[in-house]
Automatic annotation (TrEMBL):
Transmembrane as UniProt keyword: yes
The protein's name: Grave disease carrier protein
Pfam families documented for this protein: Mito_carr
Species per Swiss-Prot/TrEMBL record: Medicago truncatula (Barrel medic)
GO biological process assignments: transmembrane transport
Solcar repeats, residue ranges: 13-99, 109-208, 215-305
Amino acid sequence: MAASSESILDHIPLFAKELLAGGLAGGFAKTVVAPLERLKILFQTRRTEFRSAGLSGSVRRIAKTEGLLGFYRGNGASVARIIPYAGLHFMSYEEYRRLIMQAFPNVWKGPTLDLMAGSLSGGAAVLFTYPLDLIRTKLAYQIVSPTKLNISGMVNNEQVYRGIRDCLSKTYKEGGIRGLYRGVAPTLFGIFPYAGLKFYFYEEMKRRVPEDYKKSIMAKLTCGSVAGLLGQTFTYPLEVVRRQMQVQNPAASEEAELKGTMRSMVLIAQKQGWKTLFSGLSINYIKVVPSAAIGFTVYDTMKSYLRVPSRDEVD
């Protein structure tokens, strides 16, 4: 049986193994930190309701209003997005890395290679999966008890979505393809440096781990957590801009519409204060450490299980 299993694995293309390993890593990590992700989105978008309540007050509010499942609202859309996103992200990172090395064999070496490959792979993954990220944010944004949802799908004149398909359908009807990609510009501006820095820090830290500890789970968790923490710190304001653009309803809003990444960032700072650009950052620090750590660790572990050859062998 073991020999048969190994034979099957040997016939799976390399890119498919990397795609599978990345998808499983992303889905597992995202589910672990889903409650923190929900809180972070609410801090970023619902200023008066949650920022004034603080972390513990927000937890109590969600628990009282929506129950335990409220902490996982939008997680279905999140996992539906993160599996293809993470799969494409990790797989295209490996592919870009190999392509760059083939094109510039004597130039692109070391951490610069990881920075470039990580940035390009992050952009590619975002473009393919962005509508699902938008839907996840809209679902996580709404605060409503199921008993208060009326037959028209409205609560207090605010659109309420019943699930992923309902949200996707209504968003498309309201804005078409452009509506499904609202906020994609700050996402791309943010993902290029974040994805690049994340892989850069992770690979650079792994290189500095003593040989005896390179296969240690704890070493991988540490490298992954620090990489995610440092990468996210530099790009967080762009994420806040993206979230506010995603949940904005221009037709019903009396405030100036958020258009353009830099203009929106300035507008948010002027009307809501510059601190708003860092709303939810403390929660994000708590979330990104286990998320990045688990993601990188599961990915490396799955690569070993799927018998993916080392980069030295492939390169």
